[in-house]
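Lecture 7 notes: from sequence to structure.
We start with the chain below.
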Amino acid sequence: MAFSVSVATSADTATINLVGELDAAGAPAFHDTIEKAAASGVSRVVIRAHELTYMASAGLRSLVFARQKMGDDVLITVAGASAPVAKTIRQAGFDRSVTLIDE
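Predicted structure tokens for the same chain:
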């Protein structure tokens, strides 16, 4: 499945929707979206992963990029990740840097 990403920003929250497979081909689009969210000065980022079917190591690097770009004072939440995607995040130990929720 092709990867797509979109973002909606409110006063203090950027909501990023991920669809498909986040791999090396999709990572640049996700990085661009993170850049836009960071430029908006939000204090919270919600990454909606309900329709994300796969996350490769490039996807994990994208989450690391998001954490670095946003800084430690911005809450990053990954919502609705499938079991395989959540497992990938947990196995990498990245669930200590982002919050996984079932929402």
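Points to note: The first strand starts at residue 4 and ends at 9. The chain has a mean pLDDT of 94.
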